[in-house]
Write a structure and sequence with these properties.
Length: 102
Amino acid sequence: MTEKPKRHSMADSLKRREDVKAFLEAGTANRQNSDPNLEPKESHKTPERRIAVTLRLPEKIAHALIDASAERRKKRQKGWSQQDIVAEALATWLPRTGKLED
């Protein structure tokens, strides 16, 4: 009867491969050699906590929202999801009603 080879986790198996080691070491070297005076392009702030809200919209508004989302996505504009568009609209409208402070 033949012995089964010992099983290893994927992480352990990858650590043993030379090409993976070289890739990881190259990535580490690039980070260490980068210019510390350069500031990151985007700030790394904690994303705002979001909660689920379920609601029904009039058909015209729902279709317009879908169209706006698709247009933004085509143009690669930030905030293209329907969620982002609705949040942006409410963040503009609610302070005017006095329901939300800036």
